[in-house]
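Preliminary data (for renewal application), zinc ion complex.
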Amino acid sequence: MSSAGRYVRQTILPEIGPAGQERLGHATVAVIGLGALGTVSAGLLARAGVGRLRLIDRDVVEVNNLQRQVLFDEGDVDLPKADVAERKLRAANSSVTIDGIAKDVHAANIESLLDGVDLVVDGTDNMELRFLLNELALKRGFPWVYGGAIATQGMAMGIVPRTTACFRCFLPQVPAPGSLATCDTAGILNTVSSVVGSLQATEAIRLLVGEPPRGELLVFDGWAGELQKIRVARRKDCPACVRGETEFLGARRAQVIAAMCGSDTISIDPAHKGDIDLAGVESRLKRLGAVKSLGNILVFEADGARFTLFSDGRALIRGIDDPERARSLYAKYVGM
Ligand SMILES: [Zn+2]
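Predicted structure:
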């Protein structure tokens, strides 16, 4: 399909213009996390003509995602979000390059997953990952756009290394697990997450076309109908952007086991490199019970837990909340 005229409603804006559109077309943007915020920002950035989009998410689509995660439909349940989002957005704009990556982002792989990006949009639900991303952004010098939403409120901020406050200037200590409300315990209004995803995409577009960063946190209250701008100053003693500490980037673990926000799911990412023999695993598991192959993933149930096994060996194990039990189930049914 011809791309002539595709962006005419955008290039006519003085804020963007043909030069801004050209910049968007040459940009590589990663969206980490394809939930309520990430599906909105990724969709808008693809349609706005960001030349290369890398869509990264470790999870598969669940029925309770459909209320707010606008790229997914009922037929996508059980499929990797990254793969579905890639397919949907290729259909929305075939003139940009879209790569879906169904991986868990952690210290051992973040550098390669974000190789060559010009900007990152945070669609994660995970503070530790934001601190890790903050450190890599400082190391490489790329901007990123923080976002979060819970219940009827949300916030977004464009972070430009050593120009604006960094994430750790804003939040010096990692909150203790369980100390923050999660989407599971507090819920989320879909209109609010969609506004915050839009605010993030707007901040991303502004930075990509060369607008100076605001240095402000945007705080949206959907029920009250209020948008506040709060100036966030750089901290003189910030451990990340002033002292250069890399406590998250330095934490290279051989194997990553993570409990996932808002569900009784454990993600296991073994140190193993390269693809595993999914067909072999499938034939072994057939003897134990029902196993379903969905292209490049296997889904099966065993010992009361539901497994989703990806071709790179990563697994999501649902129905349990104990990481050690998840590890032993993985060893029993997949092997490590
Ligand atoms: Zn800082």
